[in-house]
């Protein structure tokens, strides 16, 4: 399990897929609000003048010198619903991120978000 304190040190480092292909740069870590464990990261992708953030699950991620390797293919990650580099994921769009990866979405009992930025 990757600890939140550890992964914060990897901001601005490369995020690569299982085959070692660069996806983008780690921007932020999001935790599961029910467990407070790291669940997803945002990755900055795109051209220098048209950057945006995509989400990628951290389950099974490995940290190496200067990179974080995720279990998802680069093409799948880049097709994930995205947000602008200064935007926040709207609560109503959160389920779409989980659906993109075929993961179950479990909001809180009172409709609270499943993800929180740390």
UniProtKB/TrEMBL annotation:
InterPro entries: Bac_photo_RC_H_C (IPR014747), PRC-brl_dom (IPR027275), PRC_barrel-like_sf (IPR011033)
Start and end residues of each PRC-barrel domain: 7-76
Pfam family, one: PRC
Residues of the signal peptide: none
Top-level taxon of the source organism: Bacteria
Protein name, entry field: PRC-barrel domain-containing protein
Organism this protein belongs to: Streptomyces albidochromogenes
């Amino acid at each position: 399990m990757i600890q939140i304190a550890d992964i914060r040190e990897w901001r601005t480092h490369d995020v690569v897929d299982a085959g070692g292909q660069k996806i983008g740069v780690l921007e932020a870590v999001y935790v599961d609000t029910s467990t407070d464990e790291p669940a997803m990261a945002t990755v900055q992708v795109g051209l220098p003048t048209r950057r945006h953030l995509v989400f990628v699950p951290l389950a099974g991620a490995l940290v190496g010198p200067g990179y974080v390797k995720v279990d998802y293919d680069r093409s799948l990650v880049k097709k994930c619903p995205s947000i602008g580099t200064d935007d926040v994921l709207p609560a109503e769009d959160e389920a779409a991120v989980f659906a993109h990866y075929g993961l179950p979405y479990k909001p809180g009992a009172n409709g609270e978000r499943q993800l929180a930025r740390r």
